[in-house]
From TrEMBL:
The lineage of its organism: Bacteria, Bacillati, Bacillota, Bacilli, Bacillales. This is M15 family peptidase. It comes from the Bacteria. The chain crosses the membrane at residues 7-25. GO terms for molecular function: peptidase activity. It comes from Oceanobacillus piezotolerans.
Amino acid sequence: MKRFFNILLSWFIIAFLLIGLFYLYNVLNPKHYLYLGEDAPISTELHPIVEERKNILISEARHIGIEVIITEEVRTMERQQALYDQGRTSDGSIVTYAEAGESYHNYGLAIDYALENNHGELIWNIEYDGNNNGKADWFEVADIAKQLGFTWGGDWTHFKDYSHLEMTFGLSIEQLKQGYRPKEEIKDVIGEPK
């Protein structure tokens, strides 16, 4: 019986390792990602697919009577650290839990948005219904964004970031810090807009 258990355990370990290798191959598949090395340059503009989908989001929201204003795109490391320090070592409320290098904004893969109300004022009121259809405009925008392939910070359980939208392309922050970047033509990872 002990021999049978050892053989079974060995097969489970082999299966686990094969599954792990398969996962790593698919996550770090070179057809989807570029490895630029530990000193990879930090993005100065949005990834082209994020830029494209951002523009579609603005257009589709406008089509249903919602004015979306993009308030943040790419963030420098200095700006990210200043936002992280807010409410900790500088005045203000805590607005992020991501230090410099730990935000998808730092890699051109995230945007933040607000709404423009009927008086032309920028608002962050998630209950506002400016197009008077009985639905909160904020959530309508989030739904459009999710159909376009964005992940919405309002769906997070640990820290609700209602103004945040990101496209990770399957890359973790750790992989981005190591120098991996999504290729410009990897729509097959996130799909076409629905």
